[in-house]
Amino acid sequence: MRTGIATVCLSGTLKEKMQACAIAGFDGIEIFEQDLVTSPLNPEDVRTMAADLGLGLDLYQPFRDFDGVTPDLLKANLRRAEAKFKLMSRLGMDTILVCSNVATATINDDGLRAEQLSELAELAGDHGVKVAYEALAWGKYVNDYEHAYRLVEMVDHPNFGTCLDSFHILSRDWDTAPIEKINADKIFFVQVADAPKLSMDVLSWSRHYRVFPGEGQFELAKFMGHVVRAGYTGPVSLEVFNDVFRQSDVERTAVDAMRSLIWLEEQSAKWLAGNASEGDAAASRRRYPMELATLPKVSEPAGFNFAEVKADDTAQLEKLLGQLGFAFEGRHRTKDVQLWTMGQARVIINEQAAQHAEPAIAALGFDVDSPVIASARAQQLKAPVVARKVQADEEVFQGISAPDSTEIFLCQGSPDGTAAWTHEFGEGPEHPAAGASAVIDHVNLAQPWQHFDEAVLFYTSALALEPQPFAEVPSPSGLVRSQVMQTSDGAVRLVLNLAPVQQAPVQQSPARQARKTYQEHIAFAVDDLVSTARSARDRGLEFLQIPANYYEDLDARFDLEPGFLATLQELNLLYDRDATGEFLHFYTATVGSVFFEMVERRGNYDGYGAPNAPVRHAVQYDLARP
Amino acid sequence: MRTGIATVCLSGTLKEKMQACAIAGFDGIEIFEQDLVTSPLNPEDVRTMAADLGLGLDLYQPFRDFDGVTPDLLKANLRRAEAKFKLMSRLGMDTILVCSNVATATINDDGLRAEQLSELAELAGDHGVKVAYEALAWGKYVNDYEHAYRLVEMVDHPNFGTCLDSFHILSRDWDTAPIEKINADKIFFVQVADAPKLSMDVLSWSRHYRVFPGEGQFELAKFMGHVVRAGYTGPVSLEVFNDVFRQSDVERTAVDAMRSLIWLEEQSAKWLAGNASEGDAAASRRRYPMELATLPKVSEPAGFNFAEVKADDTAQLEKLLGQLGFAFEGRHRTKDVQLWTMGQARVIINEQAAQHAEPAIAALGFDVDSPVIASARAQQLKAPVVARKVQADEEVFQGISAPDSTEIFLCQGSPDGTAAWTHEFGEGPEHPAAGASAVIDHVNLAQPWQHFDEAVLFYTSALALEPQPFAEVPSPSGLVRSQVMQTSDGAVRLVLNLAPVQQAPVQQSPARQARKTYQEHIAFAVDDLVSTARSARDRGLEFLQIPANYYEDLDARFDLEPGFLATLQELNLLYDRDATGEFLHFYTATVGSVFFEMVERRGNYDGYGAPNAPVRHAVQYDLARP
Question: Which of A142, A198, A487, A623 is the most exposed place for a label (fewest CB within 10 A)?
């Protein structure tokens, strides 16, 4: 599959964009007219630079408002088109995108439109240019790809074809199956974009909220499947207008974009394999002209292997874990790290932090079928590799860096939930105290606003986690956007939180601000939260103090048994209930940017106590006040 | 008019919100349930604190999903309501908002609904509570205020009335005239919110994009006019869910909120005076029970009086102005400021800046009918006053501080466009060089994202500038939102720009970042731009260099006369044309955060060369690269 991207997806100058696209590994680019007009590079410079970078210049865009106009306007439009054709010849480009008219069209007549587009095709032919005509979703008269294709058939000129854009097709809910009936020679270009399902006017939706494939909710694998079945073999190019991407680091965004196409390619191949076309039993084995590359296989992680917290001074972390009931298992034989466990919940305390670094979540380990295959997959998806020094005879961890810079380690799971590497820790007490059994229930990570969508695609594509519908939680400093990514069995649950900008503590260094704008936490699940809480209290744990008003409201909402309500309040426990079960939980005080949560799930309760989150935010906010 | 605000409008804890509301001068507040539930203050504390702050506790909200339910659910809902009634008694509150059911209603029968609401009214009566029933715009069965009122009439209980919310009424385009027919005794509460006209689902629109009156596009004066005519005399309270306000400084937002109500009160009185009700010729003189306070009158400013630029080292500014053709008129007799003029365009260079402070726009002077009246108005609208030292016999400037901290001076205009205070400048050359005539055409100010809506209301209410439809301009670091505020004759044009977050230069101090995240400029209009540009070039002016590609595109778009096009390119002039006329302009290089623009308007051209703005952004971005 030939990969492409429109320069309008990225921030920066044309030169910066081209360099970033080359680094990310794109085959070609679409040049957005404005990027050229505003550039100090002349067309010949751009041509040379693209050749040096190994980038094809696949499409010049956009040319707007050509068809369905008065004769006077047609003349002016042809003049304007010819100027662009000449420019394209200097750039060495042969395909131009012409969008259906949104502004100046006054005549709704397919015969006239075809006539005017024929004149354009003729002129394009004289200059060796191919015109890809696209139906914009909000085109005045032409807004349906099938209509655009009918016009292509009417024009019937070798230099006139169509461009299929997933946004313009899927935002209008057009059926994508008829794509297969289009003559592949007449599909001059294919653009892809994903988007969240929003109910708003399609123009605003398109101009601000498009995202890369895998970051939204469109059925893009199906769209691409139909395109492949049509026999199309040209570029598959991203055209994504997104307010955030336009403000973000250009190289990061280009890599995110490339990852989305690699993932889409795999998903499209899967869709084709799983969806034989009607009346064609052999279709699932049929080879199509477009070659779709495959990735190393992935399956959902079986669970968390460990969580790692890092600090310069680790005393507070050790104290908190001890009070929660974790046992100190010893120090690593060669590294300055400690292992603490509570049943199968393993927490590593890493002492190798920078001077004065406050406690923070640094790494997460996941149990996977094959760390090597999972790591190969992640690397093909352009995840940055994390290198860790290992000694001979120590377990090698395959590590990659998540978009928020948390280190993700791919570990060999075991049927009994143990981890072989724990034997590398040897200097702890002979018989660690047998505490309550626990597992890591979920981990809540703060995401920088520039990389939220990127993180969703990262965990979807590299770890096969499934994004759930997102929630918005009120806090005293603004709404917190909360996105759960989890496995189908709930064994791994990751909560990505997008915190309000103002929560960035101003006294911190810029580097730290980018990473930790918000408190993060690790939650452990136990069988009996009340007894866990009592034991922790007896050990002196500092609980997050829940206001009395909360318990009054709880009572008003749930009509709880008075003794139970009193226990909740006595121990600062929070409570939630829905049709599937009950949820009890409590929070510890925060050290650095990290705190811990203990939860008990009763019945099939599958949530996170969302109605209680505002209480936690408010109390933590109050404590953080000067 | 009794002013109120819901705590959900503001950031912070309940305590912080209450304090900010008291400082801003609100009569009362609505307590949003979650703000109490998450607070460590018990109800008695809240009651005492409100009394100490002089704040009425006017409404407890919200109580959701009561009506149209099964008998089982009704029982649970009544139990929940009673708990809240008891809580309200501890708070000393007597009115509760009950919203029409959006989630749990299963029975669509007004008879049953009235029956269930009667039970609620009865219970409320027992606790001395009044229930204000409100139709949410997205209520499952009840979403129209007239429908809610019919239910109030059916229930017919002294403790049961309705709440009118402008958002829920205007977002659905319900006719507001029938409000007048509602029995005033049955209107228990009125909530107001404005909003930009967006085409999206009404729930998202409501939860994220509401703004304070005067910051959106709803016809609120008319809404309030009908409410006043109905005979309502209770609180008029803001209920605004806005993602930005929830992240902003609580005291600033509370003042912005209060300003919006003061302004709305004036606009409502005006609407009533101008819109006699049908068949009632005396209505415009009729007094309604609700007293509407009036503000000192304002009319549009006649023009810019001056612009002031401030720097520690002013050499670069002096050089630029000199090269543009400005004449140095001398220094002020007592202050360290210089006056530079070009015709009626006056620029003050202020040398009293902090050490190492880069050049920046510091102040703007506007010609008004009466500086004292305008200043009184601004102060009643809670604009912060700027104090400047003056000597005896010097002109006293009435100054206020705009939301972006630009100082705004209200000056006595003169019929011939001169300014009396220029006589205080006396040590310049005896006969300043007679340059070309010029006026300040427009000033472009960068706005911090937290205070953009606040700025629109500020200039609307204090200076009678009219907001125009906003534009979004692409730049290499993201979209720039551009909002023109102008007088009807175009004599004063102010462009408020909301720049992408990433444009904040990281090396600057936080205080400066908040103010100057983006380049700002002053534009001067001349009669003959080509000759002005030639003279400036001869004086060595550093023009912003416009790429050659721009002129090729210009030619493709406009088919310009070759000699004219060559002149434009030779002098780095930009060009635009529309049905009303033509626009020529050029930019200078930037010093500190400020640059200058020279424009020539031909015919009735009323814009700002918007198609050229991306070129400017791209070139400036490129120059600012390390």
Answer: A623
The predicted-structure confidence for A507-532, as pLDDT tens digits, reads as follows 333 333 333 457 899 999 999 999 99
Residue A362, min C-alpha distance to chain B (Å): 26
Restricting to A residues 499-538, those with a Cβ less than 8 Å away from any Cβ of B are 500-502, 506, 510
> Which parts of chain B register pLDDT below 50?
503-516
Predicted TM-score (pTM) of the model is: 0.91
In the prediction, which pLDDT does B514 show? 35
Residues A451 and A517 in one domain: yes
Number of Cβ atoms within 10 Å of the Cβ of A98: 26
- Best probe of the A interface among B248, B549, B577, by most A CBs < 10 A, is B549
Same domain, A242 and A321: no
Q: Report the residue of chain A nearest B208, measured CA to CA.
A: A479
Which whole-number Å values give the CA distances from B120 to A587, B66, B130, B372, in the listed order?
37, 9, 10, 54
Beta strands per DSSP E along B430-588: 439-447, 466-467, 471-475, 478-486, 493-498, 520-525, 574-578, 581-587
Cis peptide bond N-terminal to A62, omega within 30: yes
CA distance B377 to chain A (A): 32
Structural domain including B499 reads 303-624
Residue of chain B nearest A250, judged by CA positions:
B477
The torsion angles phi and psi of A579, rounded to 5 degrees, stand at: -65, -20
Name the token pair of B537. 């070039």
Min Cα–Cα distance to chain B from A84, Å = 8
E strand segments, A316-392:
327-331, 337-342, 345-350, 360-368, 385-386
pLDDT digits (tens, 9 = 90+) for A44-77: 999 999 999 999 999 998 789 999 999 999 999 9
Write out chain B residues lying below 8 Å of A552, CB-based.
83, 87
Q: Name the average pLDDT for chain A.
A: 91
Closest Cβ opposite residue B34 in set A84, A555, A614: A614
Domain boundary pick from A285, A319, A349: A285
pLDDT digits (tens, 9 = 90+) for B249-262: 999 999 999 999 99
Query: CB under 8 Å, gap of 24 or more: what pairs does A399-402 form?
Result: A399/A363, A399/A375, A400/A375, A400/A462, A402/A445, A402/A455, A402/A458, A402/A459
More confident residue, A436 or A196: A196
DSSP class of residue B357 equals P
| Per-residue pLDDT, A516 | 44
Q: Evaluate whether B187 touches B133 at the Cβ level (below 8 Å).
A: no
Beta strands A56-63; A28-32: pairing state: parallel
Q: Which pLDDT belongs to residue A513?
A: 39
Statement to judge: residues B327 and B198 lie in one domain: no
Return the amino acid letter for B225. G
Q: How far apart are CA B80 and CA B426, in angstroms?
A: 76
**Structurally, how many domains does chain A consist of?**
2
Interface of B with A in 10-49 (CB under 8 A): 11-13, 16, 33-34, 36-43
Is position A443 within any domain?
yes
Of the partner residues B40, B83, B87, the one whose CB lies closest to the CB of residue A547: B40
Stretch (H or E) spanning A126: helix A110-126
